[in-house]
Write a structure and sequence with these properties.
Length: 191
């Protein structure tokens, strides 16, 4: 644990905060996850920071709390559009923007909620599922219904996601809660 290492906090971390307008060396981001950033943990030796002010917090989605930064870990719509556009312009991938109709593009944003790993995972999955159409048909289009149909094939869709970074965001099967013995009830819980 580094909580009691004064050199770590006062030399390495504090020196990177840019006092006096100078930023030397690497930029450091500290992630903390312990519930409420305003309540914090009970103060004890080895505990995490007691309080993070609004200006120090970055959330999954942009916060509406006063003084909070207008940034987030997930993409907003503009960032999502930019990422998909860059992905589609990359020569390593078959998919391009012309392959999506508007409903598919909008649905991908709704589906992923801007999660960077999910955006990458869905694009890679679609490229694998529709490889032939993308490679051999210049006018090939992917529609919202195509994405839904692909995802409805649960086992195949999850097999694709296992090959991407978004897989780490899923709860492992052994840690999934059970709803009971009714298979339909359990299946709906996973959706």
């Amino acid at each position: 644990m580094s909580y009691t290492d004064d050199d770590h906090w006062y030399i390495l971390i504090k020196d990177q905060t840019g006092f006096g307008g100078f930023h030397l060396g690497p930029r450091i981001v500290i992630f903390s996850s312990y519930g409420s950033p305003t309540g914090g943990p009970i103060a004890a030796v080895g505990s995490t920071l007691g309080y993070l002010g609004p200006q120090q917090r970055v959330s999954i989605k942009p916060s509406i709390v006063q003084y909070s930064p207008r940034i987030a870990l997930f993409y907003n719509r503009e960032e999502f559009d930019d990422v998909v556009s860059r992905y589609c312009r990359n020569d390593r991938f078959l998919i391009n923007l012309d392959n999506f109709d508007n409903t598919a593009h909008d649905y991908m944003f709704e589906l992923t909620n801007g999660h960077p790993g999910a955006v990458d995972g869905v694009l890679r999955m679609l490229e694998k599922v529709y490889y032939s159409g993308l490679k051999y048909d210049d006018k090939f289009k992917i529609e919202e219904a195509d994405i839904r149909r692909t995802l409805d094939q649960n086992e195949q869709a999850f097999d694709f996601f296992k090959q991407t970074t978004v897989w780490h965001s899923f709860v492992s099967e052994k840690n999934l809660p059970t709803c009971g013995t009714n298979p339909a009830e359990s299946e709906n819980m996973l959706r």
